[in-house]
Design a protein that fits this description.
Elements: H1 4-11, E1 16-19, E2 34-37, H2 42-54, H3 56-72, H4 74-94
Parallel strand pairs: 1-2
Length: 97
Amino acid sequence: GRPNALIEAVAAGLPAISSGLDGILGLVGHDANGWVFPVEDIGALKICIESAALCREKLRDMGRIGQRQLASGSEWAQSAKSYMRVFEGALAERSPS
């Protein structure tokens, strides 16, 4: 749920455009260090690409924000919480009533 290429891009200071999958939320913040669009929403993806093309002066700042966020570790804490919710949900489904 969290592509290494996306993590590497953020770590390298590159703003990202990504769908809003659970594993990506927290790594890419819409209009903070990139753009996030709803899964399978091609129109929203187009808007994100256009925004990136029109906001070239903002790209460097967005990249720095992503680097700082990744370096601070807050993103990893959010990842751990997301995984815990998945595991807790799976365990709850297996528990006898």
